[in-house]
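FORM 12-B: Structure-to-Sequence Request
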């Protein structure tokens, strides 16, 4: 199909994320991808290919068309692409669960597999609410979080996204009213820690859990905060009998500089959600892990099952690729690669601080962010980045990058140049 025909059909029938129907601008058509490059079906701004500065929404940590992951997919495809998980099991899912238990914090022993990050958060919330019902505390049914967060686009995750100014503000009068405290400061402030302790203590009788993105808040604003607040949350939750959930869908598998952001604080949640980079960006899969205390509590309840079962739960193809992706990550010095990218981002984005309209530049692990003092002109910023040969996807007042871990120093420098150009244009 020619690009013109494809775009006409796309415009008529395809509803793209966070966009109107029909779309107001045509998307770029990707013909293939390899390494960190997207090859376009038709040139854009004189470019036949673009460096992917987004890792396909933070998931393709090994880049594209990786021979190890390709082989894992092909091998599993020859054996079995899918089988229902109710009443059946298979090696890829069992191996994956065992790997996740091995590499995540110690208390997490049980793994519920699903097919997207939002669903993983839904499952986490359901686990926490059902745990308290099962142990005779049904009034504990609200969630506490801090503002500036983002946990997905399905119903319960939307309720713990920032209700003021967030992308789900439209639903603030319909969603369950959760408990919010202010956004976490970058550095430790005892007054803020006391706010967390006070809020958890005051609402303890109605709180099922506290849920946060540890160290880095993703799509809610790309903000960073000290790991010390995670220790404050752990201590306060233990003191007041509240479960603690870490949403590591964006932060897991090395992105922030530690394998999981929880590792930076040296604390363990009762429930953890992972996704995105779980399969190296190949297939959709997520997981919700919990402690034995949570699992045992649910299993002793009046309804001793977790009534949740996605059709593609435990998909063998995705599980096989996830196992290969985790092995590939751990077999290399991924910490060195993330630190190398972090250093390149710090050096390359420093010049953006002096650009008109730039409020702040910040870097954490393999994440680089330029925050403007106004909303980004998406069309102008995207065009400027494409002219530099880089694909970026700005949003709100942010131009940011999360490159694959295999991105070379030269390509990191080009990504930084594109971020600067986008910031100047946007």
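FORM 12-B RESPONSE
SEQUENCE OUT:
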């Amino acid at each position: 199909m020619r690009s013109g025909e494809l775009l006409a059909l796309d415009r008529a029938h395809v509803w793209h994320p966070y966009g109107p129907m029909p779309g107001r601008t045509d998307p770029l058509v990707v013909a293939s991808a390899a390494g960190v490059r997207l090859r376009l079906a038709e040139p854009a701004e004189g470019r036949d290919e673009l460096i992917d500065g987004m890792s396909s929404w933070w998931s393709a940590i090994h880049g594209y068309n990786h021979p190890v992951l390709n082989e894992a997919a092909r091998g599993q495809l020859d054996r079995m692409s899918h089988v229902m998980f109710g009443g059946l099991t298979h090696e890829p899912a069992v191996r994956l669960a065992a790997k996740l238990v091995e590499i995540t914090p110690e208390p997490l022993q049980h793994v519920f597999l699903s097919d997207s990050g939002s669903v993983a958060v839904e499952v986490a919330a359901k686990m926490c609410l059902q745990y308290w019902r099962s142990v005779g505390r049904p009034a504990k049914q609200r969630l506490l979080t801090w503002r500036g967060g983002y946990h997905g686009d399905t119903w319960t995750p939307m309720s713990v996204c920032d209700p003021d100014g967030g992308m789900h503000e439209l639903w603030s009068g319909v969603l369950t009213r959760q408990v919010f405290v202010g956004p976490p400061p970058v550095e430790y402030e005892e007054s803020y820690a006391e706010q967390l302790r006070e809020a958890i203590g005051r609402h303890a009788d109605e709180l099922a859990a506290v849920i946060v993105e540890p160290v880095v808040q993703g799509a809610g604003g790309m903000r960073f905060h000290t790991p010390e607040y995670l220790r404050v949350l752990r201590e306060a939750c233990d003191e007041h009998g509240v479960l603690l959930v870490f949403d590591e869908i964006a932060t897991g598998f090395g992105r922030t500089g530690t394998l999981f952001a929880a590792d930076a604080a040296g604390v363990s949640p009762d429930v953890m959600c992972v996704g995105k980079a779980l399969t190296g960006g190949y297939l959709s899969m997520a997981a919700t892990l919990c402690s034995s205390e949570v699992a045992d509590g649910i299993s002793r309840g009046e309804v001793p099952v977790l009534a949740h079962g996605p059709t593609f739960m435990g998909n063998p193809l995705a599980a096989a690729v996830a196992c290969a992706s985790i092995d590939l990550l751990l077999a290399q010095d991924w910490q060195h690669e993330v630190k190398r990218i972090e250093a390149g981002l710090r050096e390359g984005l420093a010049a953006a601080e002096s650009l008109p309209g730039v409020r702040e530049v910040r870097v954490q692990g393999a994440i680089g962010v330029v925050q403007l003092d106004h909303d980004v002109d998406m069309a102008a910023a995207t065009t400027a980045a494409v002219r530099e040969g880089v694909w970026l996807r700005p949003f709100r007042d942010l131009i940011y990058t999360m490159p694959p871990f295999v991105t070379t120093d030269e390509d990191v420098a080009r990504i930084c140049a594109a971020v600067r150009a986008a910031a100047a244009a946007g």
